[in-house]
Amino acid sequence: MEQVTNQETPKFNFPTEIIDLPSKGLLYPKDNPLSSGKVEIRYMTAAHEDILTNQSYIEKGTVLDKLMQALIVSPINYDDIIVGDKNAIMISCRVLGYGKHYSFTYNGQEETIDLTSLTDKKFDESIITPGVNEFKFDLPNTSNTITFKILTHADEKNIDAELAGLKKIKKDSSPELSTRLKYIITSVNGDRTPKSIRDFVDNHLLAMDSRALREYIKKVQPDIDLTFFPDRSDKSVNIPIGLNFFWPDSN
């Protein structure tokens, strides 16, 4: 009789890391896993690199989001993540995938950044109601009071879809700023109807107030500081991030 030997499938341990979110979870409802202020992500494997070469994802501009979704272990809804927290996850995924050093060319100069040296932006926690993603702001040049929110990944997708639709209607149209404001603002003088908010942005929001609002949002929005100081410069600029951010050897 032939003897059959049972061979167990080898088990491999896939290491993960717990990362802290810039928001500390304060902007998410208590029943949302993101309210813990932490997310578990896995180290990249060769299979994850296939995502980076997926032409469909690249053409749609979703390749980095697809990669991060594949690397996140925590049971979260990716659409719920605010933009600043998503930036922090992206940096951590890059470090775990290809190391902490990121080299790129800026103004003809070769620059190398230690990604682990990037820090979270400071924000005033006292103005946050835990579990509520909404802030109040009095427009400085008018008597209008608005409330606004920090955009989530779902908001970003909706904005991109709306802009793409507007582009089809009018190819030369580029209303990105006003469209984003329509998603950022949640009420005007207590009125929360989308129609009123859109009318306000299109016809009543002064350029000076729009600028003041955007500057205030930068101050209160939890995020990771993605700026650096080029050689011989005392002014900071944003770190350029493209597909080669996750694939250093790509052209």
Could you describe the 3D structure shown?
By secondary structure, this protein is α+β, with helices and mostly antiparallel strands. Helices cover 35% and strands 15% of the residues. It has eight helices and nine strands. Strands 5-6-7 form a three-stranded antiparallel β-sheet. Strand 3 and strand 4 form a beta hairpin. Helix 1 (46-52) packs antiparallel against helix 3 (63-71) and helix 5 (153-169) runs antiparallel to helix 6. The longest helix is centred in the middle third of the chain and has 17 residues, at 153-169. It is globular. The model is unreliable at 1-5 (pLDDT under 50).
> Strand fraction band?
15-25%
Shape: globular
Radius of gyration: 22 Å
Give the rounded overall mean pLDDT: 88
Taking pLDDT < 50 over at least 5 consecutive residues as the criterion, the unreliable ranges are: 1-5
What's the topology here?
Elements: E1 16-20, E2 38-42, H1 46-52, H2 55-60, H3 63-71, H4 83-98, E3 101-106, E4 109-114, E5 135-138, E6 145-148, H5 153-169, H6 176-184, E7 185-188, H7 194-203, H8 207-220, E8 227-228, E9 237-238
Antiparallel strand pairs: 1-2, 3-4, 5-6, 6-7, 8-9
Helix pairs in contact: 1-3, 5-6
Brief characterization of the structure:
The protein is α+β, with helices and mostly antiparallel strands. The protein is built from eight helices and nine strands.
Give the key terms.
251 residues; single chain; three-stranded antiparallel beta sheet; alpha+beta; two-stranded antiparallel sheet
